[in-house]
Amino acid sequence: MGRFWHSFADMSAIEAGGEFVLDRGDGIHVWDEDGRRYIDATAGLWYCNVGYGRGEIADAAAAQLRRLSAYSTFGDVSNRPAIELAERVADLSPDPDSKVFFTSGGSDSIDTAAKMARRYWQLLGQTDRTTFITRENAYHGMHVAGTSLAGIASNAAGYGALVTDVAKVPWDSPQGLRDTIDAASPDRVAAFFCEPVIGAGGVFAPPEGYLEQVRSICREAGVLFVADEVITGFGRTGDWFASNRWELQPDLITCAKGITSGYLPMGAVVASPLVAEPFWNGTAGLWRHGYTYSGHATVAAAAMANLDILEREALPKRALQLESDLADALSPLAAHPLVQEVRAGTGVLAAVQLSAEAMAEDPTLTVRAIRACRQAGVMTRALATGGLQVSPTLVIDQAGLDELREAIRSALDVLVE
Ligand SMILES: Cc1ncc(COP(=O)(O)O)c(C=O)c1O
Fold first, then answer.
1. What is the pLDDT of residue 65?
2. Nearest to 408 by CA among 346, 345, 350, 330
């Protein structure tokens, strides 16, 4: 019997079927303990933007570990890597006058943003503004706030009431958001949470004009706009943030993953000057919020080295080219009998959607497809819709994209034989 309790797992099945143990990574590939190589279709869990095996991130972390591994940043205590990283993230964000609150990951960032939003309104005397609005298909992490904001219904089921003051809107309808704000009465709504491109929910790019419209609806209603850029931040949609690309000027940005490319765990909330103001001008006094590892010195040093690579190799810009290369590379798969459609073309983000009919006929199809992909030498995973996630590192080239497609194709062929 194993002891390691996996995330998002049926442990009885893993006890029966065994664990799949990865050992190392380099560039766009990872290797298992038996030495088999896999092309990584998912960049880990959407995070490994710079690819695996970057010695300079390891060196930066090792140097910082030797100097000062970590020290809490509660109160007035600070460290140079965290100070510098905050400056750098603010400079890369849509508003360089933003303030940066560090966390340990995406779910922490969502929790922090939710509390920051409600607290902001309390500080302004608008104490009724407590409602959060979220979209169908949304994924905002698995803390209590994020679970409550889940647009993937199965992710919120089974706990009873968590945060109850949450309204859900269609993922693609600005009018739906407007109606919901009006129904709640605008002065009760604290914030709207929005992934610029929906990720785990199935990879759904925003319909033309959607982001701009929901941004302006929030502005008109005085509702805070939270861009959840845990996936899209740090290059994946062709700019440092999707908010830069779509000129969203969010009130809050939540991020994680790409800030370190997953070399060490970290998240952040980027607060616009509007939201930061009452916390920084004395109105709030001491805000009793933060985490042991907020502003962790070694993680911040690793993040700086990661941003050096993203910048030096112009990976956000490269992602803009890759978004069409990825879509072109995957598009032939749409003709496969097991595939309903390929969703791609916005950012280095794609889903190879298995056909609803085939999935209804064989409920194990997605799991079998992922296993077959592994057999064919590609690591992928299932999205909420039963699509296969394809969000490779930003250092993949045409040969890598072709390798990805052919491995997925041969895996799907095995399933129809
Ligand atoms: C959009 C979005 N928000 C939040 C999270 C939660 O991040 P974490 O798993 O680091 O807690 C994720 C994770 O995939 C995500 O995709």
1. 98
2. 330
Angle between helices 398-416 and 365-375 (to 10 degrees): 130
Q: Which residues is 25 bridged to in the sheet?
A: 30
Q: Is 167 helix (H, G, I), strand (E, B) or coil?
A: strand
Structure tokens at 194: 């929005």
- Residue located nearest, by CA, to atom 12 of ligand 1: 141
CA 416 to ligand 1 center in whole angstroms: 34
Cβ neighbors of 374 (< 8 A, separation 6 or more) are 20, 38
Helix (H) or strand (E) holding 342: strand 339-343
Cα 323 to Cα 325: distance, rounded to the nearest angstrom: 6
For helices 315-330 and 297-312, what crossing angle results, to 10°?
Answer: 70
Q: What is the pLDDT of residue 417?
A: 79
Is 391 close to ligand 1, i.e. is its CB under 6 Å away?
no
- Contact present, 57 and 306 (Cβ < 8 Å): yes
Residue 150 DSSP symbol: -
> If DSSP codes are grouped into helix, strand and coil, which group holds residue 181?
helix
Q: What backbone phi and psi angles, to 5 degrees, belong to 311?
A: -75, -50
Query: Residue 143 carries which DSSP code?
Result: S
At position 73, the amino acid (one-letter code) is T
User: How is 162-228 classified by DSSP, letter by letter?
Assistant: SS--EEEE-TT-HHHHHHHHHHH-GGGEEEEEE-SSB-TTT-BPPPTTHHHHHHHHHHHHT-EEEEE
Please tell me the predicted confidence (pLDDT) of residue 224: 98
- Give pLDDT < 50 ranges for the chain: none
End-to-end alpha carbon distance in the chain: 35
- The angle at the Cα of 179, spanning 188 to 242, to the nearest 5 degrees, equals 85
Atom from ligand 1 closest to the CA of residue 108 = 11
Looking at residue 177, its pLDDT comes to: 98
Q: What is d(CA 287, CA 272) in angstroms, rounded to the nearest whole number?
A: 17
pTM of the model: 0.98
Cβ(140) – ligand 1 distance below 6 Å: yes
CA-to-CA distance for 249 and 40, rounded, in angstroms? 33
Q: Are 243 and 227 in contact (CB under 8 A)?
A: yes
Distance CA 44, CA 408 (A): 17
